[in-house]
Here is the input.
Amino acid sequence: MISAEPYVTLSLILFCLGLIGLMVRRNFITVLMSLELMFNAVNINLIAFSFRLGDLAGQVLAIFVITVAAAEAAIGLGLIIALVRLKDTVTLDEADEMRG
Amino acid sequence: MSFYDLIWLVPVFPLAGAVFNGLVSNRLGLEKKVTHTVALIGSGLAWLWGWAAVVQWYLNEDITKPYVVKAFNWISGGDLTIFGGRVVPLDISASFQLDALSATMVGFVTFVGFLIHLYSVGYMHSEPDRDYARYFSYLNLFMFAMLTLVTGSNLPVLFVGWEGVGLCSYLLIGFYFQKDWCASAGMKAFIVNRIGDFGFLMAIFFAFFYFGTLEFDGLYQAMANDHHHVFAGAATIIGLLLFVGAMGKSAQLPLYVWLPDAMAGPTPVSALIHAATMVTAGVYMVARCNFFYQASPTAMLTVGVIGGVTAVFAATIGLVQNDIKKVLAYSTVSQLGYMFLAAGTGAYIAAIFHVVTHAFFKACLFLGSGSVIHGCGGEQDIRKMGGLKKYMPTTFWTFLVATVAIAGIPPLAGFVSKDAILAKTFEAGMTNLNGHGTTYYFLWFLGLAGAAMTAFYMFRLVYMTFYGSFRGGEEAEHHVHESPWTMTLPLQILAALSIVGGLAIGFPGQLFHFEGWSFIDRFLGPVVLSHGEHGHHAVSLGLEWSLVVLSVAVAVGGILLARRFYLNTDPAFAKADALATRFPLVYKLLLNKYWVDEIYGATFIAGTIKLSRLLWEFDARVVDGVVNGTALSTVGSSFISGVFDLKVVDGAVNLVAKGYDVASHRFRRLQVGFAQGYAMVMVFGAAVLLGIFYVIKL
Amino acid sequence: MDFLVTNAEAIVFYTVAVLTVAGGIGVISFKNPVHSALALLETFVMVAVLFILRHAEFLAAVQVLVYAGGIMVLYLFVIMLARVKDVTMERVFLSGIAPLAILGGVLLGSLVAIGILLGTMATGAGGAAAMQAVEGVQRGNTEAVGWILYTKYLIPFEVVSVVLLVAMIGAIVFGRRDAVLAGPGEEVQS
Here is the structure.
C-alpha cells in the first residue's frame, strides 16, 4: 500500500498546473478547463486522505466538490455564451469593461 | 387769621408769579404787559402782605420772641443718636418765623425788591417777549427764595432759600447765555457758591449732631443755657463752617471772585441780588446764628478779620477799575466786609443796620449806573463817559446822593451805619474783646483806611461819569438821554431813603446823651444772645465824638483827593495818569485785581481739571478697556473657534475625504478589468501568507 | 514477475500519475481548445483510476459519469456555440504574464511542498475496509457513502442541491438570447 504522500504530491502538481493555466491562457474556455483541473487535483487530495484516515467524509466532500464544479462549469459556460454574444470574442484581455 | 399767621404767603406770592411767567408767559410768548403785571403783582403782594404782617405782629405779639408758624412736616427721619448719647427724632418741618431780625429783613427786601421789579420794566423793555418773561420769572423766583431764607425758622428752610438764591443768581447772571462770557460768569458764581454751601451743609450736620434740633429758637435756648460752656468747641466748628458758607454767598475773601464777574447780568439783577439782598444773606445768617459766635471767640475773630481784610482789599482794586459796574461790584465786596467786621466784634445789630442802609444806597447806585448805561446805549466804560449830568439830571442827583451816603458823610445813611461799625470795632479794641484787643485795633484802622478809599473811588466814579465833557464821541453824545419814569422813580425813592433812612432807623442817640433812641438797637436787641456785660459805654463820649470826626475827615479827604485827580483836569485825568505811570507795578497789580482769578485758575481749577481728566482717562482706558477687552476677547475667542472649526474640524473631514479620493485614484489602477491579473495577485498573496506562516512557525 | 506483483499498485499509480500530469500539461498548452478538451477528458479518466486505486469506487463512477460524460460534453458544445472567427488564435498565452504566472504557480507549489515535506501527516485507521464499512458492517463503498451522505451529511447534501438549483437557474438566465447582459448604458431589451 502506498502512503498518501505521492498522491498529495500529484495533487499539488496538478493544482499548480491548473493554476498556471488559469493565469496564462487567453481563451476563456481554456481557463475554465484549467479550473476543472484544479478541482480534480483537490479531489485526489481528498480521496487520498479519506483512505488514509479511514473516514468517509473525504469521499462525501469530494462528491460535493464535483457537484459544485458542475454547477460552476454550467454558469461559467453560460458566461462565455453571454460574452460571445456581447463582444464576439472569447479572449479575456478584451473583456476589460471593468477597467479603471 | 392774621397776616403774620400766614407769613409763609409772603414767599409764595412771588413764587406764583414766577411759575406763571415761567410756564405760561414764556411758553406762549405773552405780551410784555401781561408779564410785568403778573410779576409786579407777585412782588407787590409780597411787599404789602409782608409789611402788613410785620406791622400787625409788632402791634400784637411779643416782639422779643420769634413767632413760629409751621406750614407742614417736611422731613421725618427716625431716631438718631447724637452727641452725649442722646436719642432724638429727626423731624424737620417747613416752618416760618417772624421775629425782629426776620421782620427787618422782610421789610427792606420786599420793598427794594418791588422797586427793582418796577425799574426792570423800563430797563428790559427792549428785550424780546419770551426773554422778558423769563427774566421776570427768575426775578420773582429769586424773591421767593430770598424771602424763604429770611423767614425760615430753622436751618434747613434757610438753606432751601440759600440754595434758591444761588440758583436764581446763576440763572440771572447767565441771562444772556448766548454770550459765552455771561454763561461762564453764571457758572463761576454757582460753583464758588457751592463751595460755600458745602461748608454750610457740614455746619447743619454738626448742629444737629450736637444739639439735636435745627430750629433757631431751640439752638438759641441751647446756647443760652450752656453756662458751663460745654458747647464752646461745637460752637467754634459750627460757626466757622457757617462762615465758609457766608464767604461764598457774601463774596468775602477768598470766595469773592464771582461777584465782579456777576456784573455780566442785567443791571437790575446786580442791584437786587448782588447789592441789596442775596449777598447780605450771609450777614443775616451770621446775625441769626449769633449765639454760636458769641460762644466762640475764635470764630468771631475769624469773621472779623476776614471781613476787615476783604473791605480794604476790595477797595484797593476798586480804585483803578474803569467799568462802572465793576467799581460798584468791588465796592459791594468792600461794604460786605464792613458788615462782617461788625459781626466779628459782636456788633450784629450794627451789621444788620449796615445791611439795610447799604441796600438803599447800593441799590440806588446800581440802578443809577443802569440808567447811565441805558442812556449811553450800553456803554459801561467810564473813560468814554463824562458830562452826563446835563443830559441825565435825575440820574445824576440820585447817584450823587447815594455816593455821598456811601462815602460816609453825615447825616446820610451810610455815615450812621458805618460809623456804628467803626465805633464798635474801636470799642472791641479798647475793651480787649476776647483777648484780641490789638487785632481789633488793627481792624479798626483797616476800616478807616477803607472808608477813605471808598470815598475816593466813589467820587472818582461820579466825576468821571457825570462831570467834565463827554468823551464817548459825537455820535454817541446825540443819543444820550434820561431814562423813563419807571427807572427814575425807584432811584428817587432809594435816594430819599439813603438820606433819611440812617437817622430814622438807628439814630445814634448815645452821641447826645440820649439813650435808647436807636430804634434798631432796641428792636434787634433780643435777637442777640449776650453773654454778660457789653455795656455801651466802654468808650467815653469824647472819644466817640473824636472817632466820628476822624472818620468824616478821612472821608472828606478822600473826596478832595478824587476831586483833585478827576474833576475838570486838563488834559483829562493827567494827574491820575501821571500817578499811574509813576507806580506802574502797583497800578498793574490793582488793575488786574491782584491776578487772583488767574492764580485760582492755575491752581485749583487746573488741578480739578487734571483730576477729572485723570479719572476720565481711568474710565476710558481701564474700565472701558476692560469692557472692550472682554468684548474683544469674546470676539477673538469666537474667531479662534471659528477658525478652528473651519480649518481643523473641516480640515479633518476634508482630509479623510481627500484621502479616500487619492487612495481610490491609486487603487483604481489595480482594477485593470483583467481577471487573470487578479488571479495572479491572489496567488502571490497566498504565497506570501504561506511564507509568513512558515516564518512564524519556524 | 514478483517485482510486478509486489509493486503492482505502485507501478499502476506512477503510470497513471504520469499520464495525468501529461494530460494536465496538455490542457494548458494546446492552442486548439478542442485539443485542450480532449486532454482534459483524458485527465478525468486517469483521475477516476486513481480513485479506484484508493478504494473509492463510487466516486470513480461519479467522476466518469459527471465529468467525462456531462461536463466534457458541455464544454464541447460551448466551444461549438462560441462561434469565434478563428478558434485557433495567434497568441496562445498572454504576453508578458506567462513567466510571472509560472513563477507564481511554482512558488506557491514549492511552498506547499515544503510544508508537506516538513510536516507530519495525520494518521488513522485507514484502509480499504474503512471505505466500505457501514456502521461497522461491510457493505461496499457505494452503500457506505450513501449511508453517510444521508445521515451524517444530510444538510450539506440539501444545500448542495440548492446550489445546483441556483446554478440551473443561472444558466438559464445566461442562456436567454434576449436577456443578454447589457453593456453600460444600454437598455435591457425584453
User: Anything to note?
Assistant: Strands of chain B lie at 67-81, 87-98. The interface with chain A takes residues 668, 671-676, 679-680, 683 of chain B (CB under 8 Å). Residues 1-194+248-287 of chain B form one domain.
